[in-house]
Design brief:
Low-confidence stretches: none
Number of helices: 13
Number of strands: 23
Oligomer: single chain
Helix content: 25-40%
Distance between the termini: 20 Å
Largest sheet: 9 strands, mixed
Strand content: 25-35%
CATH superfamily of the largest domain: Bira Bifunctional Protein, Domain 2
CATH class of the largest domain: Alpha Beta
Radius of gyration: 24 Å
Length: about 425
RNA sequence: CGGGGCGUAGCACAGCCUGGUAGUGCGCUCGCUUUGGGAGCGAGAGGCCGCAAGUUCGAAUCUUGCCGCCCCGACCA
C-alpha cells in the first residue's frame, strides 16, 4: 500500500479526551474515530488490526472443534423473557421497539439466541458434543463508557457456546476452550493469566477470566510469580485427561482479581505474590442447565429419557484486545505491534520522494516485497524525513526500511526493528531476504 | 447513577470576569527557500462561538433551559 493512496488520518497532538495510552494512540494513528460515547468507527488501519485478531481467534476456535455461525445483533425480547433475563439484565440492555411496536433489544450476549437454535434442531445425545460460536458486535449500554475502545458500549466479541449431555462432559468442553484460549493469546503476542472468577449475571458454577497485565488495567490482580513461567500448550490433539492436566497445571498457581482475593485465605509466600493491574480480555463460564432448563433445550439420552443439555459459554473481547495489546505494547513514540496482528509487516520510507535514485530504489524494493507476499506500507509522500520517521514509529509496524540519498551512495538501506530500536545497514537484497524469510 | 469539568476553524487552546469588527499555534492550499528525526518566509482557505429562549441598541461574552462530551466514584466483557 502506498501511503499517498491510503486513508490514515494521523494526529500530531493528543486529543484531549484520550487519557490512556491505547485510546490516545489509536486516535493519533487514525485507527478509529469516535461517533458517540463508547461507539466508534473503524478506519482502515484499525480495521486491519481488528481483522487480524479476529482471524487468529477464529482459527483457534476452529481448531478446537467449534463451528462458526452468525447470529443477529437485534434479538426479540420474548426470547429473553424465557430465561428471565429480560427483567434481570437492567439498564445495560438497550431496548428497542420496531414499527409494529414489537419489543426488541440489541444483544449484549447470545445465550438465549443460541439455545433457541439448539433446541429447535438438536434432539438426540448422538448429535453431541456441539460447540457453536460467532464473532459479532454486541451492545451494552454502559453507564460510563471510557478508555476508548477498551470499554465501549458497542464492541466486537467472539462468543462460543458448548452443548453436552451432562456436566462431566461439558466440563471437557470447558477445558478444551480453556486450552484454546491459552493458545490464542500466545499467538496474539500476549501473556494471559487465567483467574478464578465470579460468574456474575451469566450464572453457573465454574468460571475463569483471562487477563493481560497492564498498568492501566481496571482491576487489581494477585498472582503467584511462577505462573508467568508456564509454557503455552503445544499444538496437538488432547484426550479429556490431558486437557484436564493442562487446566490443572494452569490453575494450580494462585491467581485472583481483587473481588475474589481473600488475603487471609491466600497461602502464597509474601515474596512470591505479585500484585499488578490487569485488563480482562476473555471470560469462560460453565453454567450447566441454567438456560437449557428454562428454555426447554432437552436432548434424549442413551436411556431414552429427555434431559436439559449442559452448557458453557466462552467470550473473547476482540475489539477490546486491540486496546489491550497497545496498552501492553507501546513506548513514548507510539504503538509496537506484535508481528502476527500488525496491519503491515514493514514500513518502507522514501526519504526523498522526487529524487530519481530514491524513487527507483524504493519502487523496486516495494515491488519485490509485494511479489514476495510481504505486507508493506510505502511512504511515498513528499513529507519531510522527520515527519515520516515519527509517523512510522507512531503506527508501530514491526520493521522499517529507510531509503535515502546518503545510504544509496554506498548501496545500503537502513533496516530498523521497531520494538528494540536496533538499526542495521543492509543492501536492499538483504533487507528483502530478512523480510521475506 | 452521585460528584466535578468542558463545548469557540480538522486538532490543541485564548478571548468570556468588565457585552461593541472572532483570535493564536499546529494541520490544510499556493509560491519561494529548505531537506536524514514533526523546517523558514510570504500569501490564502476554513467558524450559525453546542442548541434554544431571554435581557440589551448590540451577546462567543450576562440569565434560564436543553443537548453533547470528558474526568473521579459505584458498576461492568
Amino acid at each position: 500500500m502506498r501511503l499517498s493512496r491510503f486513508f490514515m488520518p494521523t494526529l500530531k497532538e493528543d486529543p484531549k479526551e484520550a487519557q490512556i495510552a491505547s485510546h490516545r494512540l489509536m486516535l493519533r494513528a487514525g485507527m478509529v474515530q469516535q461517533s458517540s460515547a463508547g461507539i466508534y468507527s473503524w478506519l482502515p488501519l484499525g480495521l486491519m488490526v481488528l481483522k487480524n485478531i479476529e482471524k487468529i481467534v477464529r482459527e483457534e476456535q476452529n481448531k478446537a472443534g467449534a463451528l462458526e455461525i452468525l447470529m443477529p445483533t437485534i434479538q426479540p425480547a420474548d426470547l429473553w423473557r424465557e430465561s428471565n433475563r429480560y427483567d434481570d439484565y437492567g439498564k445495560e440492555m438497550l431496548r428497542i421497539t420496531d414499527r409494529h411496536n414489537r419489543e426488541m433489544l440489541f444483544g449484549p450476549t447470545n445465550e438465549e439466541q443460541v439455545t433457541d437454535i439448539f433446541r429447535s434442531n438438536v434432539k438426540s445425545y448422538k448429535d453431541l458434543p456441539l460447540n457453536l460460536y460467532h464473532i459479532q458486535w454486541k451492545f451494552r449500554d454502559e453507564v460510563r463508557p471510557r478508555f476508548g475502545i477498551m470499554r465501549g458500549r458497542e464492541f466486537l466479541m467472539k462468543d462460543a457456546y458448548s452443548f453436552d449431555l451432562d456436566p462431566e462432559k461439558s466440563k471437557i468442553a470447558y477445558n478444551r476452550m480453556f486450552v484454546a484460549y491459552l493458545k490464542t493469546y500466545a499467538r496474539l503476542g500476549l501473556q494471559a493469566i487465567p483467574l478464578r472468577a465470579d460468574t456474575g449475571p451469566i450464572g453457573g458454577d465454574l468460571s475463569h477470566e483471562f487477563i493481560i497485565l497492564a498498568d492501566t488495567g481496571e482491576s487489581e490482580v494477585f498472582y503467584h510469580k511462577d505462573i508467568l513461567n508456564l509454557e503455552t500448550p503445544e499444538e496437538k490433539e488432547r484426550t479429556p485427561e490431558e486437557l484436564q492436566a493442562v487446566v490443572d497445571e494452569w490453575t494450580s498457581y494462585y491467581a485472583a482479581a481483587d473481588e475474589m482475593h481473600k488475603p487471609e485465605e491466600c497461602t502464597v509466600a509474601e515474596g512470591d505474590l505479585i500484585t499488578r493491574r490487569g485488563i480482562e480480555v476473555g471470560h469462560i463460564f460453565h453454567f450447566g442447565d441454567k438456560y437449557s432448563k428454562a428454555m426447554g433445550a432437552n436432548v434424549t439420552g442413551p436411556d431414552g429419557k429427555d434431559v436439559p443439555v449442559s452448557m458453557g459459554s466462552y467470550g473473547i473481547g476482540v475489539s477490546r484486545l486491540v486496546g489491550g495489546i497497545i496498552e501492553s505494547s507501546h513506548d513514548e513514540n507510539g504503538i509496537i505491534w506484535p508481528e502476527e496482528i500488525s496491519p503491515f509487516k514493514v514500513g518502507l520510507i522514501n526519504l526523498k520522494s522526487g529524487d530519481d535514485a530514491c524513487d527507483t530504489a524504493c519502487d523496486d524494493l516495494y515491488a519485490k516485497l509485494q511479489n514476495a507476499g510481504v505486507d508493506v506500507l510505502y511512504d511515498d509522500t513528499s513529507d519531510r524525513a522527520g515527519g515520516k520517521f515519527a509517523k512510522m514509529d507512531l503506527i508501530g509496524l514491526p520493521w522499517q526500511v529507510t531509503i535515502g540519498p546518503r545510504g544509496l551512495k554506498s548501496g545500503v538501506v537502513e533496516f530498523k526493528n521497531r520494538a528494540t530500536g536496533v538499526k542495521e545497514e543492509l543492501s536492499p537484497e538483504d533487507a528483502l531476504k530478512r523480510l521475506a524469510g
